[in-house]
Amino acid sequence: MRYLLKYGAALSFLAIAFSSCREEPNYPDAPEIEFKRVDVNYTKEFGITTANMTIVVGYQDGNGDLGLRPLVTTPGSSDPDSKAPFNSGSPYQNNFIADLFIKKPVQGSLKDSAFVKYQLPVAGFNFSGRFQRLTNDERAEPLEGEIRYTLNSITDEFFNPGDIIKFQIYIYDRNLPVPNKSNIVETRPIKLTFKE
Q1: What is the 3-state secondary structure (H, E, C) of the chain?
Q2: Mean pLDDT score of the chain
Q3: Does the pLDDT of residue 9 top 80, yes or no?
Q4: Which of 35, 49, 64, 176 has CB atoms 3.0–4.6 Å from 143's, for a disulfide?
Q5: Does the residue 170 lie in any domain?
Q6: Domain range for residue 59?
Q7: What is the pLDDT, as a whole number, of residue 5?
Q8: For the whole model, what pTM was predicted?
């Protein structure tokens, strides 16, 4: 019994010692993402059915500079997430970029179809936006997790039941003076039903 206690205590000590020596992961400073899933549910309001989509991507980032606070357009704002290069009208205004593709028949073919970039019916509209800062401080540290980005703008006004769409996604970090761009990932094809 004495040996059991002696060796049990030694093993417990070793387990605690090794678990406290966990090494921080070594990710590149430019973000890397992977597509995880897309969740779709439909809602109907005022006679219009909307496909509410939540796109989930996994991320890894070496210095943790991911996410932006909401854009402040008030003149004189001191928020660094609303100043250049993240200011309104800048290509880096949004940090979650979502380009929509729709499956269309190939011209001259009765059987073949291909995804083509969707021509948005409203000039200046896009599916991109901002995701919030993932940490509350400015400390550089590796981060890993998931980003959930929700779209509520796919409606039966512009799309038909049976349309098949997908998104190409990439993100930007807060690196200055030029944010780092992640790799590009694609969602799975999504068949729109517009059924609640």
Answers
A1: CHHHHHHHHHHHHHHHHHHCCCCCCCCCCCCEEEEEEEEEEEEEECCEEEEEEEEEEEEEECCCCECCCCCCCCCCCCCHHHCCCCCCCCCCCCCEEEEEEEEEECCCCCCCEEEEECCCCCCCCCCCECCCCCCCCCCCCCEEEEEEEEEEEEECCCCCCCCEEEEEEEEEECCCCCCCECCCEECCCEECCCCC
A2: 89
A3: no
A4: 64
A5: yes
A6: 24-191
A7: 46
A8: 0.84
Domains: count for the chain: 1
Of 35, 46, 40, which is closest to residue 154 (Cα–Cα)? 40
Q: Considering the domain boundaries, does residue 177 fall inside one?
A: yes
> Phi then psi for 92, rounded to 5 degrees?
-105, 15
In a domain, residue 1? The reply is no
